[in-house]
Dienelactone hydrolase family protein
Amino acid sequence: MASLPPGECCTKGTKHEGTPKGTVEKIQNITTYFARPANPNGNAILIFSDIFGPIYQNVQLMADDFAAQGYLTIVPDLFNGDALSPELFYSGKVDFPAWLARHNTTTVDPIANIVVDHLKNTLEVKKLGGVGYCFGGKYVARNLKDGLLDAGYMAHPSFVTSEELSAITKPLSIAASEIDTIFTSEKRHESEQILADLKIPYQIDLYGGVEHGFALRGDLSIKEVKFATDRAFEQAVTWFNYWL
């Protein structure tokens, strides 16, 4: 595997301050957060979220930040109304392994297919980038090929298999955390070798002193975390500005 399955660290984090500016709409029956740019560049970004889905304020604010850079940005509900909330998870009433078993490739892939088709063929975006945080990194890999995503970015991915990473055909950027029991240094080096062998554009940036989840759920009151979070976002924007 290029990264290990999600664990408890996938659920840790801090709620970020701010008021989301987007709207919650439907793509067919899929609840989706839309962040529309004031000055659109014709391209779009599809965010494959972590386990908290599109209802999570942090990912909505992140979508707004991408929209401010000119990208139509959407966050679909990959979990068919069964996304976890931080409050529910921390209540201790969630059987996390059972929840993960309900939300695997057989249930998530069809949702991703509908959303990609809508963006490409209904909204007719010029180019489509994929962003994956934690759980969502797997689905960037699974869609990073001809006819689907045109470029991808993952932050501290989980559950990505070496076979999925080996199958990509489009440019990929990865933001990795130094302290990570899922995307470990061994898995990072394995991923680097796979990407180098593919002979496609790739980038892996390592952020020191931060933990898994920092790019979306980091405590921004900590200087080192805020620096890494800001730089990881800039990494993604720079990547898409070049490759889309």
